[in-house]
């Protein structure tokens, strides 16, 4: 009897396992279209945010006046006048950059809100993981632009108090221009510009506005964003391959592997 009981128990366990496996397989088959549709929606929202950022009009960077060689008296007067108002142009550029950076961060914030409002019912767990990873990356991108804005804010305060423009300001103007340029290249370009500015910023170490500290913080964030973008590209390619194998015939183009973002 004991043996027969064990046999019946084993058979019930096998039947239960078979039922669970069958249900899982059925759910897997049915979740293909839902997963594909969900990823297409998420991918379209993210791509739309990138497109909106790229569509923002360019901002002209202020150029430091250059004294003409063998200048005439008139040319010298014009040059000296430009030198006097150059800090005003740089200050105005900081204000425009901060407004632009806020607009970029808002675009990514809105994309995150839209993705979070989507219905993920019936979506395969690997599809959920793929979007979760993407959401994490978009969050990092939004926060990166917030950090650039913070640096611009710190430096504008310093600029106003100094009532003049130094070499570090010129380097930081280049960093801000890189941040609001090519979306894909922004982290690497900003990190490169901040490396160029490090020496000039070190000469401001005694000022109370912590511009150097904010620049170092931003450089670290830019480097981390570059690494996380590369990691996301590799992991998303793996997850898409899994989904393609599991659900053949579905459209996974929204998350097809793309070339890694360039960096310096």
Model description:
- Mean pLDDT is 87; it is low at 1-28 and 259-264.
- The protein has six helices and no strands.
- The chain starts with a helix and ends in an 18-residue tail after the last helix.
- It is an all-alpha fold and 264 residues long.
List keywords for this structure.
264 residues; mainly alpha; 6 helices; 0% strand; disordered N terminus; disordered C terminus
Task: Describe the SSE topology.
Blueprint: H1 2-54, H2 73-116, H3 125-162, H4 167-179, H5 186-202, H6 211-246
Poorly predicted regions are 1-28, 259-264
Radius of gyration: 27 Å
Give the SSE order as H and E letters.
HHHHHH
Task: Report helical residue fraction.
Answer: over 70%
- Provide mean pLDDT, rounded: 87
Measured between the Cα atoms of the first and last residue, the distance is: 75 Å
> What's the β-strand tally?
0
Q: How many separate domains?
A: 1
Sheet with the most strands, sense and barrel status: none
As a percent range, the share of strand residues is: under 5%
Which overall shape is indicated by the principal axes computed on the Cα atoms?
A: elongated
By DSSP (H or I, 4+ residues per run), the number of helices equals 6
What structural class do you assign from the helix and strand content? Answer: mainly alpha
Compact overview of the structure:
This protein has 264 residues and is mainly alpha-helical. It contains 6 helices and no strands. α1 runs parallel beside α3 (125-162) and α4 runs antiparallel to α5.
């Amino acid at each position: 009897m004991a043996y027969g009981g064990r046999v019946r128990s084993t058979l019930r366990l096998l039947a239960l396992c078979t039922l669970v496996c069958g249900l899982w397989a059925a759910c897997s088959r049915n979740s293909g279209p839902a997963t594909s549709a969900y990823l297409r929606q998420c991918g379209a929202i993210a791509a739309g945010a990138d497109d909106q950022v790229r569509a923002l009009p360019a901002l002209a960077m202020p150029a430091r006046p250059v004294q003409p060689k063998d200048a005439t008296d008139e040319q010298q007067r014009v040059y000296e006048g430009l030198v006097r108002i150059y800090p005003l142009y740089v200050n105005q550029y900081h204000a425009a950059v901060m407004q632009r950076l806020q607009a970029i961060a808002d675009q990514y914030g809105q994309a995150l809100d839209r993705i979070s409002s989507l219905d993920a019912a019936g979506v395969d767990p690997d599809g959920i993981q793929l979007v979760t990873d993407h959401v994490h990356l978009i969050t990092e991108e939004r926060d990166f632009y917030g950090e650039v804005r913070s640096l611009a804010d710190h430096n504008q305060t310093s600029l106003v108090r100094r009532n003049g423009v130094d070499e570090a300001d010129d380097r930081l103007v280049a960093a801000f221009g890189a941040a609001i340029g090519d979306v894909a290249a922004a982290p690497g370009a900003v990190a490169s510009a901040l490396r160029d500015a490090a020496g000039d910023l070190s000469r401001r170490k005694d000022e109370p506005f912590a511009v150097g500290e904010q620049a170092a913080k931003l450089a670290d964030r830019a480097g981390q964003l570059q690494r996380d973008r590369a990691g996301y590209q590799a992991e998303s390619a793996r997850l898409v391959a899994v989904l393609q194998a599991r659900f053949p015939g579905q459209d996974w183009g929204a998350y097809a592997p793309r070339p890694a973002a360039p960096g310096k």
